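[audit] Reproducing an earlier prediction to check determinism. Same input, same settings, fresh worker. If the tokens differ from the archived copy the diff job will pick it up downstream; this log only records the rerun itself.
[audit] input (214 residues):
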Amino acid sequence: MAPTLVYFPIAGRGELSRLIAKVGGIDIEEAPRLPDGHNASDYGSTGSLPVLIDDDLKINESGAIEVYFSLIAPKYADLTAKQQAKDAQLSHLKETYMASIGKVIFSMTKEERASGAKKEEVKVVRSKYYSVLEKILPEDGYINQLEYPTPADLAIVNICDAYMPFGCAYKHAGVDLSADYPKIHSHSERTKLDPDVAKAIEGSTSMRASFPGF
């Protein structure tokens, strides 16, 4: 049985796991909710998603799922420990940015979203983190200096292209990554030219999906 990722049909905390699986050569199944008879506590979760089921393995935490997929993906089988650490670093940076941006976006009422409230709060988060990310990315090529992108590069695509919550926040605050952070934007665009990445994004129904009202 293929590993099953349990998560909502949006990008959020599940999209990088999806990208790593698709680009890395893992066939996975998806479900929007836990199987009947399963409790979130069985996975170490107090109720939040995503969680992963792979035979007798039951885990929560998006970072753990991303690392697991990275380790079992055929395409990434030959990565060194240092390359795997770099992939994990960018995965965790993505999660940090998502939590900070999501805190602003999901705290707003429908009226606040419609009026453009808290734009500056989004920009503060962007300025705090993205200027640092801009400095550590290569001018060309991929992060692990291979001929193909690894999960670290996919994390940049996630940050730039996933609508929930990143794209939603950029739209709300009028953020233009290509103008403000050209290296981040260029790295994402370069990574998306890889045939496997392009195919994964083209077939994704969650990358640009949104919650109602967002």
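[audit] rerun output stored. Observation attached for the diff report: Residues 81-105 form the longest helix (25 residues).
[audit] end
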